[in-house]
Structures are given as C-alpha cells and as structure tokens.
Amino acid sequence: MATTNWTIDPTHSEIGFKVKHMMFTNVSGKFNEYEATIATEDDNFENANIEFSANIDSISTNNTDRDNHLKSADFFDADNFPKLTFKATSLTKKGEDYEIAGDLSLRGVTKSVTLPAEFSGLMKDPWGNTKAGLNISGKINRKDWGLNWNSALEAGGVLVGEEVKLNIELQLVKL
C-alpha cells in the first residue's frame, strides 16, 4: 500500500475548547498556531500515523488578561512548556466514524486519551485538492496534566471548571 501524507488546512480548521466559568457558563478558546503530520495507507485513515502540536502562546479566549493568565505558570506555563503535543497510538473505525487514542502532553505531563472522531469523508475542492474532514470531540480533566489553579467562589463552587470539552474541526489536505 502507498503512504499518503496529509496536512491541516489552517483556514478551514479550529483547535477549540470550552471550560465552565463560575460553575454555569462556558468560556471558549482556541489555539491559533498548530501543525500536524498525518500519514495514511492510501485514503484509509484507520491506523493513521498522526502527530500534532499547538503553540501555547497562540491561545486565544478573546480576552488578553485571561490569555496571559492561561500562559502563566498557574496554567500552561508557556515559558517552560511552549507546546501542547498529541501523538496518536491508534485510530480505530467505529461504524462510519473513528475513535482516536494517543498520548497528550501538556506542562511536561503525558497521559493517554481516547476521543471520538467523526469522519466527514473525502472530497475534491474546486482546485483539485483532495480534502478530508475530521471532528474530534471529547472531554479531559485539566488537573490530570497539572493545570490545577482555581479560586473558590463565595457562594460555593469554584471559578474554573476541571472538565475541558474539546471541539477540534480539522480539514485535511492530501499532499
């Protein structure tokens, strides 16, 4: 089988997340700078080799003070750990979609995660490029990677939720 290489189309992709704020609303954010190398056997994504990284300094929640706090040692500690990385260990077909498992590294801590991945199929764009779509969702607990900062609320509860909901929309381009 021939190896097919893919890259992320950054103009049609988003590496997003949501976290509860004050126990009742979500704050959304994303990483604006990221890269990936993806290799498949022909156009079959099962058992694809996927390596991904995002620059922590590119985090954006539409609030400069909050973004700077997230980059600080209270959270991601971007000065010491400038990248978030993910290396897939398996991509398994589940019906029409996939389940992606791999090692997620943040703040020098690596943990295995398994996330559902919705496969949108293959399509040629108007310029003849073959594209594939993947939507990766799921949840992680930020404390598993040492992102422990929080503040108690006067009425009970905490300022920042532990659960992080992932919403990763990827449009891949065949190289």
Automatic annotation (TrEMBL):
Domain Lipid/polyisoprenoid-binding YceI-like, first and last residues per copy: 5-173
InterPro entries, per database record: Lipid/polyisoprenoid-bd_YceI, TTHA0802/YceI-like_sf
Species this protein is from: Flavobacterium flavipallidum
Protein's UniProt name: YceI family protein
Alphabetical list of Pfam families matching this protein: YceI
Highest taxon of source: Bacteria
